[in-house]
């Protein structure tokens, strides 16, 4: 087989998110964020992520604010990247990364409404300069599941349209301050999360059990779409060379059988959970199937006509997404498989991770082809990887994560095959560069990194960093420009 390689200027690296790895939750004037109140529950069933793991309702939110008790707020310490960034960035270079996708903590930059924290700006500049010095290009996400607490308490996050202006105020500061460090930007992380969790996706707190909760989630989402469109415009005004994208959790699903009923069911599932989001950020119009679905679900959105113009006028510059797994959907699904946030059925042709995420490298090629066929916009895969409960092998002083090498190898090969199919792809950052706290389960022991961090679910350990076998392998792939994938 022909040994396909990465195109020139291809961004290859790793990803992370401020709330999951920075720690230092109250250092140098940082304000609290909604992530600081999520906690790890040792009794959690890893394979059954229920809504309470990603959503806070009014009662549970009030409870955690008033009675934090001895809850394990793992995001508050993360892996202390805030203080150890120099060492970590050297490790990023050592594993061959030429690109690092991370996020900025809004609550660091704006600890209170209208207040700009200069210390935070100076700190991020040091980090970004260190990346530059190590030949690592940045991709920066403006908001990755960590809205400032004040935004939630004063406005109920994006449930209020006021959040649009607040987001733009923040975006203006960071785009202006950091434009010389970063060309590729992203608005919201996995914007489709909001339809599952107003808290995680939009910084909103809903009344438990309210019939109108789903309507409120989609209303918040509408405000986010408007904010996303406006931030595209803003970025271009600040510097026409900046590229602004939006980030989705790509949902890939196959019909459970070739029964046309199952094909139809799967199409509906993809429309609502996947296609809709890409349509909104690329074409800026609510698709017919979604309007029909809103009617069926008795969801009435307040949409002001000026919003529709803004949406239409400001499509993203590139499309980015996370891709971890696929599922199946059909009329009668015998068994449900657990998943990140999207629940589908088990596919007998695929194996799954310990958390039930079904591994499907070919699905990545399918997703890439579908998206490029539809929108002809460059793609960037900003998250892809496998979470495993693993331990450093002291005896041999290594972590032989050959399962991760297999996972990454097969996905990267399919990415190259998609490029060979004609898809334009700017880059790929694996989730993650370095072990950090999980988004769904808040565990440290669900590890994704190329670099190991010696900390447990309770924040205990030396915090030492060591390169896993996958990290060494990643370097050989980077150095050979992908050729070694095919050996
Ligand atoms: C995505 C999020 C990330 C991340 C990843 C893995 O949904 O954007 O923040 O953590 O999934 O998920 P988890 O950490 O729950 O295993």
UniProtKB/TrEMBL annotation:
Which one of the record's GO molecular function terms can you name?
beta-glucosidase activity
> Entry's Pfam families?
Glyco_hydro_1
Keyword match Repeat: no
Superkingdom in the source lineage: Bacteria
Signal peptide residues on this chain, from the entry's feature table: none
> Which GO annotations describe the biological process of this protein?
carbohydrate catabolic process
Q: Which InterPro entries match?
A: GH, Glyco_hydro_1
Q: Which UniProt keywords apply?
A: Glycosidase, Hydrolase
Q: Name one GO cellular component term.
A: cytosol
> Of which family is this protein a member?
Belongs to the glycosyl hydrolase 1 family.
Name the UniProt record assigns to this protein: 6-phospho-beta-glucosidase
* Lineage, broadest ranks: Bacteria, Bacillati, Mycoplasmatota, Mollicutes, Entomoplasmatales
């Amino acid at each position: 087989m022909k040994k396909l390689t990465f195109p020139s200027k291809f961004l290859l690296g790793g990803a992370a998110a401020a709330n999951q790895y920075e720690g230092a939750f109250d250092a140098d004037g940082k304000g609290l964020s909604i992530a600081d109140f999520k906690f790890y529950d040792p009794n959690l069933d890893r394979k059954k992520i229920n809504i309470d793991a990603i959503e806070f309702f009014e009662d549970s939110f009030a409870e955690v604010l008033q009675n934090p008790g001895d809850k394990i707020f793992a995001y508050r310490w993360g892996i202390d990247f805030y203080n150890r960034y120099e060492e970590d960035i050297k490790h990023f270079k050592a594993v061959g990364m030429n690109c690092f996708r991370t996020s900025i903590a809004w609550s660091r930059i704006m600890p209170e409404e209208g207040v700009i924290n200069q210390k935070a700006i100076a700190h991020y500049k040091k980090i970004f300069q260190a990346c530059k010095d190590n030949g690592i290009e940045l991709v920066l996400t403006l908001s990755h599941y960590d809205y400032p607490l004040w935004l939630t308490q004063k406005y109920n996050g994006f449930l209020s349209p006021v959040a649009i202006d607040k987001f733009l105020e923040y975006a203006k500061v960071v785009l202006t301050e950091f434009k010389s460090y970063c060309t590729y930007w992203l608005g919201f992380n996995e914007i489709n999360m909001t339809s599952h969790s107003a808290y995680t996706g939009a910084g909103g707190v809903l009344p438990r059990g309210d019939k109108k909760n789903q309507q409120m989630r989609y209303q918040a989402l509408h405000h986010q779409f408007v904010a996303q469109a406006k931030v595209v415009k803003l970025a271009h005004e600040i510097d026409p060379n900046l590229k602004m994208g939006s980030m989705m959790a790509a949902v890939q699903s196959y019909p459970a059988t070739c029964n046309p009923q199952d094909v139809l069911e799967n199409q509906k599932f993809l429309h609502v959970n996947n296609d809709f989001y890409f349509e909104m950020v690329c074409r800026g119009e609510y698709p017919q199937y979604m309007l029909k679905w809103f009617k069926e679900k008795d969801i009435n959105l307040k949409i002001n006509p000026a919003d529709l113009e803004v949406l239409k006028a400001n499509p993203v510059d590139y499309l980015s997404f996370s891709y971890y797994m696929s599922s199946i959907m059909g009329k009668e699904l015998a068994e449900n498989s657990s998943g990140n946030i999207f629940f589908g059925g088990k596919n007998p042709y695929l194996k799954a991770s310990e958390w039930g995420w079904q591994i499907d490298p070919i699905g990545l090629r399918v997703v890439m082809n579908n998206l490029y066929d539809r929108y002809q916009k460059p793609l960037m895969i900003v998250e892809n990887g496998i979470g495993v409960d693993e331990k450093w092998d002291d005896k041999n002083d290594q972590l032989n994560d050959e399962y991760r090498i297999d996972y990454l190898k097969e996905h990267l090969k399919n990415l190259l095959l998609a490029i060979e199919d004609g898809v334009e792809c700017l880059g790929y950052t694996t989730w993650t560069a370095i072990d950090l706290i999980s988004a769904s389960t808040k565990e440290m022991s669900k590890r994704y990194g190329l670099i190991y961090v010696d900390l447990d679910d309770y924040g205990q350990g030396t915090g030492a960093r060591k390169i896993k076998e996958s990290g060494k392998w990643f370097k050989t792939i980077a150095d050979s420009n992908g050729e070694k994938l095919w050996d």
